[in-house]
Specification:
Pathway: Cell wall biogenesis; cell wall polysaccharide biosynthesis. The chain has 300 residues and is an alpha/beta fold. The chain is built from eleven helices and eleven strands. Strands 3-2-1-4-9-6-10-8 form an eight-stranded mixed beta sheet, sandwiched between helices. Strands 5-11-7 form a three-stranded mixed beta sheet.
Length: 300
């Protein structure tokens, strides 16, 4: 059961160091290789990999990726997985700002095997506390609702994601859409493609990754903007896959619940629920903007 852990990274060598230390620790005694896709081509990444790998049995390969974009980095991880271990069965992706809990790596792999899943994922804990601004909490809670272990209809993102060799072999290249490399949404597009091929998705509550939010994302304005931009990207992806009419109809159906929740929040004088409505409305506005041709702002 050979496993490749793939890590896309961009200008975070010290966060990468912590992640590599944890991943290689969890990988000891298992047939695991690690691949780092460096989207900044920084010599510091090579040094970090060498320092972490010194004295460990888990091989670490660094692959520079000159074309900027998360899709480009993820595609490089898949390509390199075939090179470092032609017999690989699972590719597990961790973003460089995450840190898996002890045992999370094998918990995710075991879940995929238990449910014969093509894709599997687990919780990404962003450390939600009462100190977070209200809208930030509402945005995070809306995107991190707890689930039971087992098969699910969809997954949420590329952080803490397992892909099976069986699925990747069936998908035409490139696996992650290059034109979504700088706007995000490449993971949503990937899941739609996987679902069209009959892929099975599984969820493992035990495979927890911690990803504390950086200070610049701890603002109400940032939360609303992120909800807007993510939904704009997803609407654009849905138009690409399902057509304009289908996506417009889905938008119409989604308009009902925010207004129902506004009435409930006002009636119960519930500020947390009202904040959730604000996030939902920003998401609806983003979907409408995506349908109207808005393209999400590139990541910097």
């Amino acid at each position: 059961m050979p496993i490749v852990v793939g890590i896309p990274t961009y200008r975070r060598p010290e966060l990468l160091r912590g992640l590599l230390l944890e991943v290689t620790k969890q990988a000891e005694g298992h047939p695991v290789s690690v691949v780092v896709a460096d989207n900044d081509c920084d010599p510091a990444v090579e040094r970090v990999a060498e320092e972490v790998g010194c004295g460990r049995t888990v091989p670490i390969t660094v692959r520079p990726v000159r074309e900027r974009g998360i899709s480009q980095a993820r595609n490089a991880l898949v390509t390199t997985a075939y090179e470092v271990d032609p017999e690989w069965e699972y590719l597990v992706m961790y973003d460089d700002d995450g840190l898996p809990e002890p045992g999370a790596l094998m918990a995710l792999v075991d879940c995929a095997r238990r449910y014969d899943a093509d894709c599997a994922s687990g919780p990404v804990d962003m450390g939600i506390t009462k100190t977070y601004p209200t809208l930030v909490r509402s945005y995070l809670l809306a995107t991190s609702a707890p689930r039971r272990e087992g098969l699910v209809s969809s997954l949420d993102g590329g952080q803490n994601l397992l892909l099976s060799r069986r699925l990747v072999d069936r998908m035409p290249r490139p696996w992650f859409a290059p034109h979504r490399g700088l706007s995000g949404g490449e993971d949503f597009a990937f899941f739609l493609r996987a679902r069209s091929l009959g892929a099975r998705f599984a969820w493992s509550p035990a495979a927890v990754v911690h990803e504390p939010l950086p200070p610049h994302r701890l603002s109400n304005r940032g939360a609303l903007l992120r909800a807007f931009e993510e939904n704009a990207a997803n609407a654009d992806t849905e138009v690409e896959f399902f057509g304009y009419g289908h996506t417009l109809a889905a938008l119409g159906r989604s308009l009902v619940w925010p207004f129902v929740n506004v009435a409930g929040a006002v009636h119960h004088r519930d500020p947390e629920r009202l904040a959730g409505v604000a996030v939902s409305l920003c998401g609806v506005a983003g979907r409408a903007a995506g349908l109207a041709g808005h393209r999400p702002r590139p990541y910097l």
